[in-house]
Amino acid sequence: MDNNEILKKLRIAFSMKDTDVQETLSKADMNLSKTEINALFRKRGQRNFVPCGDQILRRFLDGIIKNERD
């Protein structure tokens, strides 16, 4: 399982939309546009697919932690 799949599963588990993912990342000091976020959720091989790096996943997890603590 790669980082993109983990990100997708977390998004589903927390019932998040693209804007929620964007807000979660911004709480962890990472600003991505909606287009960049949508590219992370595409299937491998689709046009404009972008692999999710370790830093993006780590920041997303940090943002979830900050959301849950608030």
What does this protein look like?
Pfam families: DUF1456. This is DUF1456 family protein. InterPro entries: YehS-like (IPR009921). It comes from Thiospirochaeta perfilievii. The protein has one domain. 11% of the residues are buried. It contains 4 helices and no strands. It is globular. The model has no long low-confidence stretch (mean pLDDT 94). With 70 residues, it is mainly alpha-helical.
Number of strands: 0
Mean pLDDT across residues: 94
Element string (H = helix, E = strand): HHHH
Measured by DSSP, the beta-strand proportion falls in under 5%
The rounded distance between the terminal residues' Cα atoms is 30 Å
Low-pLDDT segments: none
Percent in helix? 55-70%
- Rg value: 11 Å
What is the global morphology? globular
Structural class: mainly alpha
Q: Provide the number of structural domains.
A: 1
**Main beta sheet, described?**
none
- Total helices: the number is 4
